[in-house]
């Protein structure tokens, strides 16, 4: 941690000394001379200073070379474990009955498991590999057509380009989930491929250094890497996954400024020590926006693989079965829409208004017979609730709630004007 903080301070010093009043505790003149005279393309001098931030003294001792060495080692450790995926579709050639497998799209995948296949003499004859990718990478646009996902491998021989390895290997899709946007593919080959080690995505913090690995824009840029930081550890994003123009799923993502481009989907997000902490899934694409990419956290990925995708078990998501509106979003227009003249001040225990207003309760759902329209959901398992999006993300991440779990809810009963706490059992929902 000390090394990472130091590197950030070094960059700040180089970038802002000429324009910002940024001072280190110590000899300002000496610091200015050092910064002025020793800025080179490769900073190798150790920097030892103490900066007082609030009440904490942080001792800094590192070099840019330390970061470079760690990044190089991390990339080398995982780059052969990230492969390409080509989705090919069977198309008819002209007016003939002949067909040809055309490449419809390309993406990336991360190899996480290897099984050795042996003959009677116990000699290894081939390997069976399991790789994780995005569901949309192995799913075609037309349900009426035949699609096959191929693993793409490329290894360059620096001594003899004629011995470069470039191969497509047919895979089988073991399981996939369109909402989570994950899929597991399986394939056999005699080529040895190293596997990745899963990291703990819950240990990430804002500012953690990460890098991505994948194949943006086809395989001409196979196994490209980008470098950046974690911008947010838990970003909730909603989607319409069934095409009815209604948001039906909210996913939980790691936001990063490490560039993620088309073709990077299904590739890996790694910490500097080469641990897989996410599967790259999407980016925010706007003319006015740069470097906003999102990865599915590795803890969710690992749970989905082990409990559902490898065995092709459908994922069943728990739902509360209620339609909600955040109290903090209420204004005069919304109040009039729900025939309200004021919020019930006794619902919030003297705090600023919080909670979720119940718009509708699904018949037969988790909260049917407990909550009614007009109630205000205040707490889940004792924690205040502010956003329906955050609740939906927790229900969808597989690691927080499961169907059958008992959950405590606290709500304001609109009919009795009482605050009530009870327990509900989570049921499956669409």
Features:
alpha+beta, disordered N terminus, 430 residues
Please give a structural write-up.
By secondary structure, the chain is of the alpha+beta class. The protein has helices at 2-16, 28-37, 64-78, 298-309, 332-337, 388-396; strands at 49-53, 56-60, 82-92, 99-118, 124-133, 147-155, 165-170, 172-177, 182-189, 197-198, 209-214, 224-239, 249-256, 268-271, 275-283, 293-297, 318-319, 322-326, 356-361, 376-380, 383-384, 406-413, 418-425, 427-428. It is 16% helix and 39% strand. The strands form five sheets. Strands 7-6-3-4-5-9-8 form a seven-stranded antiparallel sheet, covered by helices on one side. A six-stranded antiparallel barrel has the order 11-12-13-16-15-14. Strands 18, 19, 20, 21, 22 and 23 form a six-stranded antiparallel sheet that branches. A hairpin with a 5-residue loop joins β4 (99-118) and β5. It is elongated. The two termini are 43 Å apart.
């Amino acid at each position: 941690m000390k090394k990472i903080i130091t590197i950030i301070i070094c960059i700040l010093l180089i970038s802002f000394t000429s324009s910002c009043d940024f001072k280190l505790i110590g000899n300002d003149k000496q610091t200015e001379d050092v910064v002025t005279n020793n800025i080179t393309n490769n900073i190798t001098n150790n920097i030892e200073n103490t900066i007082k931030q609030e009440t904490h003294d942080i001792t800094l001792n590192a070099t840019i070379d330390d970061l470079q060495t760690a990044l190089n080692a991390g990339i080398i450790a995982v780059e052969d474990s990230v492969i390409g995926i080509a989705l090919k579709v069977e198309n008819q050639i002209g007016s003939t009955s002949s067909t040809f497998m055309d490449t419809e799209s390309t993406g990336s995948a991360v190899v996480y498991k290897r099984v050795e296949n042996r003959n009677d003499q116990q000699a290894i004859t081939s390997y069976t590999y399991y790789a994780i990718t995005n569901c949309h990478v192995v799913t075609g646009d037309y349900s009426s057509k035949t699609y096959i996902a191929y693993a793409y491998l490329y290894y360059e021989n620096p001594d003899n380009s004629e011995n470069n390895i470039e191969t497509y290997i047919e895979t089988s899709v073991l399981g996939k989930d369109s909402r989570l946007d994950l899929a597991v593919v399986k394939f056999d080959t005699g080529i040895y491929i190293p596997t990745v080690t899963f990291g703990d995505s819950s240990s990430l913090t804002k500012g953690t250094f990460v890098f991505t690995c994948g194949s943006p824009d086809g395989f001409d840029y196979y196994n490209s890497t980008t470098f950046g930081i974690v911008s947010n550890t838990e970003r909730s994003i909603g989607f319409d996954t069934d095409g009815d123009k209604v948001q039906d799923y909210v996913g939980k993502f790691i936001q990063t400024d490490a560039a993620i481009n088309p073709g990077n989907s299904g590739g890996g997000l790694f910490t500097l020590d080469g641990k897989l902490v996410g599967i790259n899934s999407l980016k925010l694409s706007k003319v006015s926006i740069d470097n906003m990419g999102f990865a599915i956290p590795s803890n969710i990925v690992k749970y989905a693989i082990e409990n559902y995708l490898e065995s092709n078990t459908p994922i069943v998501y728990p739902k509360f079965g209620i339609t909600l509106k955040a109290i903090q979003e209420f204004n005069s227009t919304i109040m009039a829409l729900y025939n309200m003249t004021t919020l019930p001040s006794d619902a919030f225990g003297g705090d600023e208004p919080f909670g979720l207003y119940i718009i509708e309760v699904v018949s037969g759902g988790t909260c049917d017979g407990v909550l009614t329209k007009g109630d205000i959901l205040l707490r889940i398992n004792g924690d205040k609730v502010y956003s329906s999006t955050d609740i939906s993300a927790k229900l969808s991440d597989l690691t927080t709630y499961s169907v059958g779990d008992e959950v405590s809810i606290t709500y304001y009963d609109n009919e009795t004007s009482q605050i009530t706490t009870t327990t509900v059992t989570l049921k499956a929902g669409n």
